[in-house]
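Hi F.,

I've been meaning to write this up properly since the lab meeting, where we talked about keeping a consistent format for the predictions we share between groups. The idea is simple: the sequence comes first, exactly as it goes in, then the structure tokens exactly as they come out, then a line or two of notes. No screenshots and no reformatting. I'm using this chain as the first example so we have something concrete to point to.
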Amino acid sequence: MLISAILLKFKKFIPMRIFENHVAIVTGAGQGIGLEICRQLVQQGAKVILNDVDVSLARRAAQSVTDNENICTPYAGDAADVTFIEKLVDDCVNQHGKLDIVIANAGITLFGDFFEYKHEDFAKVMNLNLGGSFFLTQAAAKRMKKNKTGGRILLMSSVTGHQAHKNLAAYGMSKAALEMLAKTLVVELSPFQITINAIAPGATLTERTASDPGYESTWSRITPTGRPANVGDIAQAALFLVSPNAGHITGQTLVVDGGWTSTSPSPY
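Output, unedited:
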């Protein structure tokens, strides 16, 4: 009895894992921000379906989070393909019995001069950044509505949806549209206790940006806080918006950029 009383008292001081018994889908999570979001969700108790278009990358990413595939399940496929998206949501619910959180992180950046921008590049950007996010949101929300469980949906925007950026007209347009999608869907999703928000990262150190030798020094110079973000900075903001603590926040975009959009100096 004494030991039980001590353990019960001690338990009060153990921080609860905020996503215990939650199930999440994160697209485009083979590396970078998406992978860090998966890692932090699992650390906080969630079960995660980790999607990436690259089969081997999805597997390695999931294994880097945990060896237990039932907790972090690699799920390879094209997040721009509507048929695949519907299967992803169905298989998630079949595996775990529900779906609480969806983070539409998959996206593509294709730089190009506006006067020379190719139709096929425009289509790739819009199909994944916009179409993939739209139809993943639709498939997830339909399931949440049917199951009457509510849920959290997060779209991945960018500071280029707020400020002009050279050679990123199509990309910036797609990201601005995602923020409007989050705002618009408040009307349709709120009656079912589904929140939808967006996050707009600024310059962030990832595997991709690390290949640019001047990236970190340039963005450290022009970011008011003196450095670009790391993936943890973005993931922590994302986890807040999909957590129970953000239940009264919906239709909003959270900019995480070290203050860059307040001054907006060009990196060029």
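Notes:
Residues 17-259 form a domain with the Rossmann fold fold (CATH 3.40.50.720).
The chain has one domain: 17-259.

If this format works for you, I'll send the rest the same way.

G.
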